[in-house]
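Journal club side-thread
Mid-discussion, someone asked how the predicted structure for our own chain would compare to the paper's figures. Pasting it here so we can look after the session.
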Amino acid sequence: MNVTQSDATEQIGVFEPILRPKMPELDVLRGIASLSVFFYHGLYYARDFSLFTPVQRRILFAFSPGQFGVNLFFVLSGFLITGLLLDSRARPDYYRRFYVRRALRILPAYYAILLLLAVTRTASSSFLVMSLFYCANLSLIFGIKMSYPVLWSLAVEEQFYLVWPTVIHRITVRRLAILAGAIIIASPISRLVCFLPTQHANLSDSGCYYFTWNTMDGLACGALLAIAVREFCSDRRGLLRLSVLCLGFALMMALIGVPFGILTRQSKLGSALQAVPWNIGFTGIIGIVLLIGTSPRKSLVTSPVLIFFGSISYGLYMIHQLVFLGYSRFLAGALPMSLGQPNSWPGIWLRLAIVATVAVGISYLSRRYFEEPFLRLKDKLT
């Protein structure tokens, strides 16, 4: 069958630009990241697995990768923030626009959760002071217990926001790419150096994994992708090659690393490299999702349900552990023994359902009635 030039143009026209002001397919990834962390904390985190049958243990273990939802957040953030800054480098209000918009997005809900933690006495005053200045991830250096752990990743992000705009504004794109690549190499080395003196203790207890310099490789992977789609592989074929390369390398690295302990941070290799395949793999996934999301098959990566969870991901990430704590403190004891026990099989799922309902409800209300008024100020103030 002959295809006319106009027909060919129409076929080409169904592909949208890869980079757009709004990319709903990335909201889907945000939703997946937040749900991954939620299910990890609800079904796997701090649980005595010896109390369950082999089948039940397998089901619960299946949610252990949810901990890497934080890495997906980091790679996404690195990609989006770097892209935003690169696209606005020539603006005279470069710094003001970025920091005002970030403040309106992040600070209201963040300080609201700190107030809630203070009122409910969930976190110590010393930890709240550290969190007030976005240093929750450094609290263990000063001997301060991390009373509300999810805040560590927000501290990393805010420290990234503090430095990265100046870096992007002052160096060339080529040097920026080299710097991002250097960070991807340096962070695992830093994790290993941090791990060696504490290798006979729990790595998470030592605080190594939470330090900013030990977690920057995820942000750098996203930053490198943002640079690549603008400078080195801006066409669809180039992005596809890069994404497949990332996915293939991540899979190969994970498979080769399994016999050498990459699955646990309690080994030298795992302490340094466990997160690396995830970061690189997520980089490839973002590229693939961008390609699908701008193609005629975009419905595959624009699920309304996941877009909804993406829209409330910030609030859900911050509030869900507090709701889990509230359930244990106020509700678990009032339930029958078979349901109230934290390690009873029916009780696990009841707890998950109740906490999910409450946490999602709070996150939705927060987004619509508390966060949105601040977000609407973005265009007025910048």
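Post-session note: The CA atoms of residues 122 and 289 lie 38 Å apart.
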